[in-house]
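Students often ask why we bother encoding 3D structure as a string. The short answer is that it lets us treat folding as translation between two languages. Here is a chain of 180 residues written in the first language.
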Amino acid sequence: MRIEMSKAGWPGWTAERTLVLPVPVSAWAPPSNAVTLDGVAFQPKPELHVTLVGAALGSELHAVFEKQYLDDRARMAFAALDWSFVRAGRLLMLRKQARVAGEPKQFRSIIERLGMPAMRRFHLALGRMLGRELAVPPPHVTLFTAGRAKGIGVASARQLRAHASREVSGEALSLAKTPG
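And here it is in the second language, the structure alphabet:
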């Protein structure tokens, strides 16, 4: 299903120096119930968005460029593109190990992949600003998380492969809903 985002306005940088494109609830409502898959309790994301620029790249851009210049150039590149996307219907469970306060922790999320041609073109424009080719983040929306509410950052296809633990069918997700 195609989600029209052609009139999406500039979302602006977050405090974490990321750039996220909110998905309107009218176009795609967030999940309403928790799910349990593989013995893991996942909580639904209260809002849906597509991360266009993750924290590492956003921090680099902010360190290299003066704020107004960066805002103007990124806003122009963003405005030149149609941010509409197609839900691919491909659900993946992601897993990431990390140390928190010296203790090993495991974070998980369930994402849906998207077809979003603008993502590649936007990163080409950002790469031209930096004078190098950038990895293109795989367009996706995080639907559920476990272990940490913000999910797992995925800045490249390589990172997606490293964190993907398995595909999840829509039917399995429906059956896994926890009454709420």
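Translate back mentally: Helices lie at 55-64, 67-79, 117-130, 157-163, 170-175. Keep this in mind for the problem set.
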